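Comment thread on ticket #2218

A.B. wrote:
> Attaching the input chain for the structure job we discussed in standup.
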Amino acid sequence: MGIEIGKSITTGGVAASHAHRRRDRQGAVAGAVSILACLVFVTVAGAQSYPSPDDLVLSPDGARLYAVMSGTGEVVAIDTAKRAVAGRVAVGKVPRGIAISPDGAHLYVTNSWADTISEIDAAKMQALRTLPAGFEPTGIASDGHGALYVANRLGSDVTVVDVAAGAIARHLIAAPGASYATASADGARIFVTHVYPILSQFRKPTRSEIEEIDARTQIVTNRIALPDAAGVFHVAISRDGRLGLAALLRPHNLVPLAHVEHGWAFGDALAVFGDDIGGAVQLPLDAIEDYFSLPFGVAIAPDKKRAYVSASGSNEVAVLDLARLVAAARAPSAARMANDLSAAARYVIARIPVGRNPRNIALSPDGATLWVANRLDDSISIIDTARMSVSGTISLGAPATLTPQRRGERLFYSSSVSFGHSFGCASCHIDSTFDGLNWDLEPDGFGIDIVDNRALEDIADTSPFKWNGANPDLQTECGPRTERYFFRSQGFRGDDLEDLVSYIKAIPLRPNRYRAPDGELTPAQERGKAIFLRTVRKDGTPIPETNQCFVCHSGKYYTNQLLADVGTGKPTDRSPMIDTPELTNVVNSAPYLHDGSAHTLEEIWTIFNPNDRHGQTNDLVKDELNDLIEYLKTL
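C.D. wrote:
> Ran it. Output below, let me know if you need it in another format.
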């Protein structure tokens, strides 16, 4: 039984973008001020750890900036007047998001690989308590009245945490990949976004949403629809609560990638919503042949005159005139403007180069200073908003030398190699995972061989690659194939290609949330394992060896690394032969099958296996199929 999940890597990586973003294999981005903060590095298997600042939050008075270091598992406090590190505290594994109490006394940090929240005394920089969260907590917001709202990426839900009780008060259903959360200034509303799309009919336009939560009732009161959007990142709300902005991607995955040179792979955009707009519209940030790749962090000035957006792929921050942006959003033509590459010139007034892979941004209470977390430079850029330029850079103490993996990670998250610098590896493989989409790669013909994207965790020893096994190694997958069929440019060669492959091979598996630490299975999982390992049907007749689950899905990664015809080929496929995919953490990577046509694991057998060619499953009742799926979740 070959559980054919999908084996395509949809993009390769990319290098630094314009001349001011040129690649420097040994150094970091220079600034007017460089302040070295001492750091104790953790060494795991001989590899150095890098701080990798991700999220930021300012104290209410603006005197301190707190930065989450996802690489070294700590929070760093920075004295904003001295531009110097004032303290640090260790938190949990792979911290991602941070919130602060209204009085500035406490910090709350999500530990995404520990499924917990660290509560920190902000003045003493001491950990106080560990609070519970959901599966892979990422973004977090405080309503200022004793509740935290945590966006759980793998749980696709929002946990409401009662701070006084130190317990989860309720779970709210969210869309796939809930990742970022922001509270309105008065704490009355919480807004949550998602990095994965809401699955719809196969090969139909994608969509996403922003959930609006009433903090008084702790229920979702509005789901702001975002048609044609997929990855949606940070959201900002104006101080008066009347305007919201969210950074997002508009993937053009339903047309062949032959249109890359026409700006037709991704649209980098903003969702503009709220009472000032009277609804929600999407406006582009891209310009012709000058794309604003992977918009991520958003901030709105206190006086609502300007907004700021970071581009984590093109290493810059855009400055937007808010009056012009609102005017464009309210124009009769706004609904048609999302794909207009001339529109951004109306409201984008500057683009400021910063460090590599800028993530979240934080604006001082007076709007005079913008702080930018440069994750892959291990630094923070300080932008003078009046001059619209970088006035200083704080180094967070990265190792003096770069490992091949770190150099490769920089390439993976940059967008400069593709035509027009429009997209890179991380555009499809969001945060080194996947995007939940299927794509039409045109070398085999338009509308032929539709491929599902795949996760990249722990794939080093799972060759061959591509759903039909056409690429024998990652050098082929990420080198000439990517150069020719994705980027329409030179792509990766030589040392750059080896560095990129080195990074991809080093991407680790997330913790499995369905497997007990001691390996013991639940009764349902035990029953599912017996089905996975069975060699006879329920009537006692033998199952052909090629149709037994554990034969195809064998070994450490649950793949025999061979091709098989499991009956899931489509009329649009050139060949029915499918490369048997690995099953490690398969629960996290919907949709399924080589083309992403199955939304759930259950659909693989209830819809796409009518003739029992993809394992013997038609003799199973629903409860037995559920047991099988419960076991697969543990792999």
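A.B. wrote:
> Thanks. Noting for the ticket: Confidence is low (pLDDT under 50) at residues 10-46.
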